[in-house]
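FORM 7B: Structural annotation worksheet

SECTION A. Query
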Amino acid sequence: MTDTNLIADGRLEFRRTLPSPVETVWRFLTEDELRGQWLCRGDVEPRAGGRIAFKFDPEKLGDKRPDDVPEGRYTADFEGTVVTYDPPRTLAFLWPGAGPDGETLVTMSLKEVADGTELHLVHERITSDSDMVGSAAGWHTHLERLECRLSRALAPNFWTRHDTLESEYRQTIAALRAKSFS
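SECTION B. Predicted structure
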């Protein structure tokens, strides 16, 4: 189940109901090898103030890169800082990027529900529409992959799905901006 909210003040919210216990989902958020199956590889130091590494390489997610997509697209290697590490409930971290201080804040909260675990992701302090578009498409695509991984379903091709969502979010955010100026 997917519920996505875009808020025009630099904040994205995603909610997913995942078919696994909270402890399992927590492991997929914090353990290098499991996180690498849906988002990216990288270690997480298990404490506030610790380092969180992001080693993005969509080709390692198992999907073939289309011939018209340049090699290295969406590949990145950077680090953030863990803000909250409260297993198995909350992981928050500073994401280097285009926030007001050069960083945005991502908070992932987990809650047990009847069907498994509710994941509530909030990404805030995003300052530009292009970063909103990229972040929305990225989180949507990656969370969809997490949902598929946990339900043992086949995920859509990363490249195709991300590019389609990027186009859709670009239109949605433009419409939100036009509405806020009317």
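SECTION C. Observations
The chain has one domain: 2-180. DSSP finds four helices and seven strands in the chain.

SECTION D. Sign-off
Analyst initials: ____
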